[in-house]
Amino acid sequence: MHDLAESGKGSPVVTNASADEAIQAADGGIEPEEGASEAVELALTIVEPESEPEPVALVLRDGGVAVVDPSHAPPFYLTDAQKLAWGFIKAIDELSTAIEGFKLPHPKTAKHVRGARTVSREFLNTMIFAARHAPRLGDVKTMDPDRAQAILEFNQAFRPVAQRVATFLKGLNFTIEAGKAQVVSEALTTYHVARGLARKHVELESYVHYMRRDLGRKGNKAPRKKKGT
Predict the structure, then answer these.
(1) Is 178 exposed, middle or buried (0-12, 13-18, 19+ CB in 10 A)?
(2) How far apart are CA 82 and CA 92, in angstroms?
């Protein structure tokens, strides 16, 4: 979903917007399309108007409209990581559209798809051959052998692709988690150093206060009592 969110003390932020999607004015508010994509957040700062000029509408990617002040050009603040991520998303979307009949899992068809896994490829090959050559069987028209052959060839060709994508997904998720772990380690070490320095340097006390508040840890845990004591 697209929304307007307060960004701390700053201006409201519109997510998933695109610079080339500003068009002529409409009514206001955010009206996202049903099923709108949430693949990536592209933060767009909207400057609050001092007066009330004629509004213009900013069309958000995948639908939705936000009214902004036309006297201010809404600047994008995209990090290098956001630009790289958006490039990946566009590439993935292009790859998915290149696959004819590309489908996402759905609860209504999941059981049927799982059940088909138990049927052997050898049986399917035999059925394709029979549908092409067996007397009268081809007249039944319950199976298109050419289409069936093409589907099996696609599956065989793209199985290594699916495995490579799965490996990439595991690596991407671990890279995200490992990156956070590195930042956490450095932050906690710096926090403990700051606590020690704050005993002698009062100007650090307020920083340590907010660090402790945001960390959410209240003091040290009491040591566990040994059994039988």
Answers:
(1) exposed
(2) 15
pLDDT tens sequence across 64-85: 555 555 555 455 567 889 889 9
With CA atoms as reference, report the closest residue to 32 among 14, 46, 13.
Answer: 14
- For residue 7, give both structure tokens: 């960004």
Structure tokens at 67: 């009214």
DSSP class per residue in the chain: ---EEE-TTS-EEE-SEEEEEEES----S--BPTT---S----EE-PPPSS-PPPEEEEETTB-EEEE-TTS---B---HHHHHHHHHHHHHHHHHHHSTT-----HHHHHHHHHHTTS-HHHHHHHHHHHHHSTTGGGG-S--HHHHHHHHHHHHHHHHHHHHHHHHHHHHHHHHHHHHHHHHHHHHHHHHHHHHHHTT-GGGHHHHHHHHHHHT--SPPPPPPPTT-
Please list, in sequence order, all residues whose beta carbon lies within 8 angstroms of the beta carbon of residue 53, skipping any fewer than 6 positions away. 69, 70, 71
* Structural tokens at position 192: 């403990």
**CA 29 to each of CA 2, 5, 26, 65, 188: distance values in angstroms, whole numbers, following the listed order:** 11, 12, 9, 6, 41
Q: Which of 99, 32, 24 is nearest to 68 (CA)?
A: 24
Distance CA 16, CA 64 (A): 10
Model confidence pLDDT, tens digit, residues 128-181: 999 999 888 878 889 999 999 999 999 999 999 999 999 999 999 999 999 999
